[in-house]
Design a protein that fits this description.
Two copies of one chain form a homodimer. Chain A is globular. Chain A is α/β, with parallel strands linked by helices. Chain A folds into two domains: 7-266 and 477-489, Aldehyde Dehydrogenase, Chain A, domain 1 (3-Layer(aba) Sandwich); 271-452, 3-Layer(aba) Sandwich (Aldehyde Dehydrogenase, Chain A, domain 2). The first copy, chain A, has 15 helices and 23 strands. In chain A, the strands form five sheets. A seven-stranded mixed beta sheet of chain A has the order 2-1-9-8-7-10-11, sandwiched between helices. Chain A is 39% helix and 21% strand. Chains A and B meet through helix 4, strand 5, strand 6, helix 15 and strand 20 of A and helix 4, strand 5, strand 6, helix 15 and strand 20 of B. Chains A, B: Residues 16-461 form the Aldehyde dehydrogenase domain. Chains A, B: One of its GO terms (molecular function) is 2,5-dioxovalerate dehydrogenase (NADP+) activity. Chains A, B: It catalyses: 2,5-dioxopentanoate + NADP(+) + H2O = 2-oxoglutarate + NADPH + 2 H(+); 2,5-dioxopentanoate + NAD(+) + H2O = 2-oxoglutarate + NADH + 2 H(+). Chains A, B: Belongs to the aldehyde dehydrogenase family. Chains A, B: Pfam families: Aldedh.
Chain lengths: 526, 526
């Protein structure tokens, strides 16, 4: 399929008027065609108007219609074939198996949400039947369901050109909830975005839905992104990216005449606690697993293990030796964009130049453009606790800081000082159980996901997943951006009191025609 | 019980240092003793520190322990006896049956939350069992439960000295979720607040809970209230009151180093649509019901019907005649505070002085202090649509504006122009069903609760209730402040990946020892 470099507004492909953006192949430095001429306020308004006019129709499509739509999007993405993989590889520098895996994840996610829409848990149907004889006052018939919030603005990051981008988790969960979506494409992968956007356009048409259900905008974050979040027809925002980007959108959203929720997944250093008995018994194996997780995908994951916390001593020294060896052997990898590479270099230089931090090892240096050298550093808990910037340093890439603690008490204090995180990991043996128990309350307050004897990279798309966590990991700790519960971000409850049967939504009618789980008088009916 | 005029910080009663506040009996103008000397930043910090130190223990109390605590609070409130009713009547000017009813509602609400805690729906337990043989990658064991957000700051309004105050819905749902509570008492009913606060203190002690689970502060909103919301140990805010008060707290909460959710229930004019066939067939009866709802409790409800929308014509004229007669006969009533009375007078004067608004009727004038005269006014849809201030005018009290529409189209435009509302009401007959259907999508986007052939005053405390709605009715349309779903405001999900059985929380252990409803591999098990 020939790329056109145009904005997709409903079923149209439209030329912008602002500055053109070209993708750059980070592995070669080569500029990729075509140029994507950015849109402006005009195009934002058009996309939002279409989304708004589609909203009432789309949100009342049946679960089956919406599920088929999500499945059709997945099929249309698969139908693009190898063009998608090759363009995504060229725009991201990521290898083929990773891009093929990510395509599988993206389509699997869309199909999971199709099953979620059909199952109907998201409706949260509640029925409190009338009690006409209750004293002193009768109770009227009361029923509740969830409805869609409204059109959603989606902003993806550079590091998942498919799974967190145009048809990624935010889009899939918004569409599943009944919300039209306007995506602001990431400037790092415009061609991948266009290919997936056209697949979405086709699915909208094939399913006979109003065209405003999906639009794709290109342009500057400061102009197009800000105008999109400020538009009164947008009712929620999904964002994955940097802390500064996320907080900028939060400010715009809060200053609207009608403030709206922003679901921003921003920054996390994902502490890993090496508990003493596990470290003693199998420090080598832990070091191997750690460096595998650290260097996977050039460390460009929001769940990358950027902080390791352990007791000082011979076991930790042995771990550092083993991990240092593995880091030294780790090959250079191409990073996603020149900007990402530059920020990584700065972050590593910060550790390298810090008085309280010692370099343990660096990975192999590369010869190509935008290649990163992994980095492993160590500091003491005293230094870590004494310097706020060390606690808040997220180096996006394959770089990690080990914090050596002189006592249990110091280790607890390090844990307590952490900001909100996506994940917290325990490497532990049975003999560490008491210590793990004493850490758990702190970790529960700090993180959205707690792991034992695994690694935080690799986020399963399932019903129990929480890819979220207290601020600044995300803007809203009550939610997840991965897994089926992500749909609840885009819904709100409505109560219907004594409505005639003919006016009740299908989900609430007598006899439960949709066959969904309901809470009747407070009792769960599966 | 002798009132002491002190702040309750944990189990202590403490004297403040700031300006003293005395309640005023609005019916007599009399100053009520004792004086409540306000606290300052010092007392806020003490209460927050205690709440924080209680948090990890309290949030892990078993459902049974927490349920018994809620039931004990209810019993302790009942044990205060008539002193509570008399003080609440003196501080609010509300009549005895209303205060007795409100006490019943308050204790019933606490007992409802006890049953909710035991039932365990709030845990939202999800289990995705390990799939060790899955290709290409095995799935690890993943489980999810909800945990409490942290200490909650609660601010009540003047109009429900019991049900939305110290032990009201926000406190009950926070405590049910496992969150300690710090209440900032409303200055209109400090004595009622102290009585209920002491009942809570006793319940904390009787149940052997850490004292920081509950504190009660008196003082100025600008100092004590602002310091409370800004305190880093507070993790959420429950507020019921004015739009200016709610948005001020939202701004403080958003500007913290760690922003936190504010659940502010603020302003609503609760539109009532009189559909043509119902209006023709039974305009008199509708007028009677309407004026009953309008004037109940001097109209001092956030669900008071402040806006009536109908087609112009003889049916509406007849309705206005009948409603006007009923308003004229409605006796004067004492309002809650001098400030409420003054704001009401200003609101009515605004309608009376507006060129596009005609007075239909005023109620009887009173002879005592702070007495209000009900008011009914009428305008045209053209005037209403032409003047933003008319659309946004919330007159807190027994005053309502009727909007006469020249066409269906105009009526739809009036509906579409409304801000977010707690409720929207349809007076309709079977022959109005098509028109109701065409209005429903708009009403669903505007309101948290939609009623047919009832009146919005009277909010059932049950599982389906939504006392919420789009901004500015509330700050967060995804939630309710009344009913069992209010508990979800104070919870967040945590995912546990491959944790050893010995480390898993009770709710997630194999065999489901708490016997709660679970979503296993996406399938509901009741």
């Amino acid at each position: 399929m020939a790329l056109e470099g145009k904005l997709l507004i409903g079923q149209r492909a439209v030329s912008g008027n602002a500055n053109p953006i070209n993708a750059i192949n980070p592995a070669t430095g080569e500029t990729l065609e075509p140029a994507y001429v950015g849109g402006g306020k005009e195009e934002v308004a058009q996309a939002c108007e279409l989304a708004w006019s589609a909203f009432d129709t789309y949100r009342e499509t049946s679960p089956e219609e919406r599920a088929v739509f999500l499945e059709t999007i997945a099929s249309e993405i698969e139908a693009i074939g190898d063009d998608l993989i090759e363009r995504a590889m060229a725009e991201s520098g990521l290898p083929r198996p990773r891009m093929e895996g990510e395509r599988g994840r993206t389509c699997g996610q869309l199909r999971l949400f199709a099953s979620v829409v059909r199952a109907g848990e998201w409706l949260d149907v509640r029925v409190d039947p009338a009690l006409p004889d209750r004293e002193p006052m009768p109770r009227l018939d009361l029923r509740q369901r969830h409805v869609a919030l409204g059109p959603v603005a989606v902003f993806g990051p550079s590091n998942f050109p498919l799974a967190f981008s145009v048809a990624g988790g935010d889009t899939a969960s918004s569409l599943a909830a009944g919300c039209p979506v306007v995506v602001k494409a990431h400037s790092a992968h415009p061609g991948t975005s266009e290919l997936v956007g056209r697949a979405l356009q086709k699915a909208v048409k094939a399913c006979g839905l109003p065209e405003g259900v999906f639009s794709l905008l290109f342009g500057s974050g400061r102009e197009v992104g800000a105008a999109l979040v400020a538009d009164p027809r947008i009712k929620a925002v999904g964002f994955t990216g940097s802390r500064s980007g996320g907080t900028a959108l939060m400010t715009i959203a809060q200053n609207r005449a009608e403030p709206i929720p922003v679901y921003a997944e921003m920054s996390s250093i994902n502490p890993v606690f090496l508990l003493p008995e596990a470290l003693k018994a199998r420090g080598d194996k832990i070091a191997e697993g750690f460096v595998g997780s650290l260097t996977m995908g050039a460390g460009q994951f929001c769940t990358n293990p950027g902080l390791v916390i352990a007791h000082e001593g011979t076991s930790l020294d042995a771990f550092l030796d083993a991990a240092g060896e593995a880091v030294k052997e780790s090959p250079a990898q191409t990073m996603l964009t020149p900007g990402t590479h530059e920020a990584y270099q700065e972050g590593v230089a910060y550790y390298a130049g810090h008085d309280g931090v010692r370099e343990v090892a660096r990975g192999q240096a590369g010869s190509g453009t935008n290649q990163c050298q992994a980095g492993l550093f160590v500091t003491t808990a005293a230094d870590f606790l004494g310097d706020e910037t060390l606690q808040r340093q997220e180096v996006f890439g394959a770089c990690s800081l080990v914090v050596a603690c002189a006592s249990n008490d110091e280790l607890q204090r390090v844990a307590e000082r952490l900001e909100g995180q996506l994940t917290a990991t325990l490497q532990m043996d049975d003999a560490d159980l008491d210590m793990a128990r004493s850490l758990l309350p702190t970790l529960e307050r700090k993180a959205g996901r707690i792991l034992a004897n695994g690694w935080p990279t690799g986020v399963e798309v399932c019903h129990s997943m929480v890819h979220g966590g207290p601020y600044p990991a995300t803007s809203d700790s009550r939610t997840t951006s991965v897994g089926s519960a992500a749909i609840f971000r885009f819904l709100r409850p409505v109560c219907y009191q004594a409505l005639p049967e003919g006016l009740l939504p299908e989900a609430l009618k007598d006899g439960n025609p949709l066959g969904v789980s309901r809470l009747v008088d407070g009792k769960r009916e599966a």
